[in-house]
Design brief:
378 residues; Transferase(Phosphotransferase), domain 1; two-stranded antiparallel ribbon; 13 helices; Kinase-like_dom_sf; signal; membrane; nucleotide-binding; transferase
C-alpha cells in the first residue's frame, strides 16, 4: 500500500511539484495542506453524486465537509493523463503565487490517489454563468445592474492583479462566466487556473498551443498562438457583454453569422444599435449612461488587435470609477425623491423598467477616467 501511494505521488506530479517549489525555496507542505485519500473520501461521502457541485470535460468538483467541519470544494480529475498532471502541477504553482480576495483560494491537495485532487475554499452561490443564463429560476434570481457592475469590477481587479501585481505575471487563459464563482454576498472569485501560464518578466508573450473556450477566445491568439495578457482582456470583454445582454457567448441554435455574441455586439455598436442587445430587465433611466460607458469599454476590450485593447489595470480603474458614479447617482436620485415626496411612502426600483423618479434627476456626475483626467457624464 505504501509503495502504491509512492507510485501515485510520482505519477501525479509530486516530484515535479517538489522540484519546482524548491526552486522557489518553498516546500509542498508549507505551500498547501497535504490531505490523505481517506480524509477526502470521508469528506465527500465516498464521492457521492449528491455532493457534485459541477462537472466539466476534465473533472468533477465535489462539496466536502472536513473533520473540523470546514466546507471545501474538491476537484477530482476524470482520467489521470499526462496533460492533466501537468495542469494540476501548473494550477498549484500558479495559485501559490496569488493572494487576492477575488481569486479562489487553494487550501491543499492529495497526491496519493490514482488521480490528483485539489482542495479549494468553498464558494457557495454558484457561477456567474448560472446566474446570468438561468435567471428567474428559484436558485438563481435575476442579477440587478448594481450587482453586475460589482461583479465585473471585482473580476477586473483580480485579473489586473494577476497581470501587474505579482513577481511573475500570470495569464489566466480561460476567463469566462463559468469560471467566475459567487459567494453569498455576490463577491466574485476567479477560478480554474489549470490552463494559466506564467509570463517571464523579460518576455511579453509566449508561444503556446491554443487553449481556452470557444466564444471567449482571443482571435489574435487563435491565429498566431502568441499568448499575451491582452488575450485575457478580450475574454473579459465577452464577459462584460454577457453582463450587459444576458446572452450566452455562443448560441449554436442561431444562424452562423449570429452565433458569436462578441461579433453581434461589435456589429450593434458600429450600427449604433446598443439598445437592441441590452437586457431590458436591467435598463432604467438612471443607469443608461453608465450602461453605455460599460458597453464602450467592452468594445475596446474586443478590439481585434491586442495592442488596441486596454490593459486589465486600465479596465479595472475604469469600472471602479463607473461603479462610483452609478452608486452616487443612485443615492442622489433616492435623496431627491425623498425631498420631493416628503413623508409619503414610495418605492424606488433600480433594476426593472424605467422609473419616473429618475426623470427628475438632471444632476451631473464627475468621475476620473483611467488616466486621471476629470470629465462629466450628462
Amino acid at each position: 500500500m505504501i509503495k502504491l501511494r509512492e507510485n501515485f505521488f510520482e505519477q501525479n506530479g509530486g516530484l515535479i511539484l517538489e522540484q519546482l517549489l524548491s526552486c522557489q525555496r518553498e516546500s509542498l507542505e508549507k505551500t498547501c495542506q497535504i490531505f490523505t485519500a481517506e480524509e477526502l473520501r470521508r469528506a465527500t461521502n465516498n464521492y457521492h453524486e449528491s455532493r457534485i457541485l459541477g462537472e466539466g470535460a476534465n473533472g468533477i468538483v465535489y462539496k466536502g465537509i472536513l473533520s473540523d467541519q470546514r466546507i471545501v470544494a474538491i476537484k477530482k480529475s476524470k482520467i489521470g493523463t499526462q496533460i492533466q498532471t501537468e495542469q494540476f502541477v501548473n494550477e498549484v504553482i500558479v495559485l501559490t503565487k496569488i493572494n487576492h480576495g477575488n481569486v479562489v483560494r487553494l487550501l491543499g491537495c492529495c497526491l496519493e490517489t490514482k488521480v490528483p485532487l485539489l482542495v479549494y475554499e468553498y464558494v457557495s452561490n454558484g457561477t456567474l454563468f448560472q446566474h446570468i443564463h438561468n435567471k428567474g429560476q428559484e436558485s438563481y434570481p435575476s442579477l440587478s445592474w448594481e450587482l453586475r457592475l460589482k461583479i465585473a469590477t471585482e473580476t477586473a481587479e483580480a485579473l489586473a492583479h494577476l497581470h501587474s501585481c505579482i513577481s511573475t505575471p500570470i495569464v489566466h487563459r480561460d476567463v469566462k462566466a463559468a469560471n467566475i464563482l459567487l459567494d453569498d454576498n455576490y463577491t466574485a472569485k476567479v477560478s480554474d487556473f489549470g490552463a494559466s501560464r506564467l509570463i517571464p518578466l523579460d518576455e511579453t508573450q509566449l508561444l503556446t498551443l491554443v487553449q481556452g473556450t470557444f466564444g471567449y477566445l482571443d482571435p489574435e491568439y487563435m491565429q498566431s498562438s502568441q499568448l499575451t495578457e491582452k488575450s485575457d482582456v478580450y475574454s473579459f470583454g465577452v464577459v462584460l457583454v454577457e453582463l450587459l445582454s444576458s446572452r450566452p457567448a455562443v448560441s449554436f441554435d442561431k444562424p452562423l453569422m449570429e452565433r458569436s455574441l462578441a461579433m453581434c455586439f461589435v456589429s450593434a455598436m458600429k450600427e449604433d444599435c446598443l439598445l437592441q442587445i441590452l437586457d431590458t430587465d436591467i435598463v432604467t433611466d438612471s443607469n443608461v449612461d453608465v450602461l453605455k460607458e460599460v458597453a464602450n469599454l467592452a468594445e475596446k476590450c474586443l478590439s481585434v488587435k491586442g495592442e488596441e485593447r486596454p490593459s486589465m489595470k486600465e479596465v479595472a480603474v475604469e469600472l471602479q470609477a463607473l461603479r462610483k458614479v452609478y452608486n452616487m447617482h443612485s443615492k442622489e436620485s433616492e435623496n431627491f425623491a425623498k425631498a420631493l415626496f416628503g413623508p409619503y411612502s414610495i418605492d424606488i426600483v433600480h433594476d426593472c423598467g424605467s422609473t419616473s423618479i429618475a426623470a427628475f434627476t438632471s444632476m451631473k456626475s464627475e468621475r476620473l477616467n483611467p488616466f486621471g483626467e476629470r470629465y462629466v457624464i450628462q
